[in-house]
Amino acid sequence: xxxxxxxxxxxxxxxxxxxxxxxxxxxxxxxxxxxxxxxxxxxxxxxxxxxxxxxx
Length: 56
Fold this sequence. Notes:
mainly alpha
């Protein structure tokens, strides 16, 4: 739980002092997109491990 709160604080601090509204929202959307892509890659890797894919 402490790790989640630390990640939340880092996320909020990262976007606090950005000046322009458009740039702030662009970087926020890009961060969420990157996080979603990382989760998809992580899911695919775990799925390959679980189904016994040969990494030769």
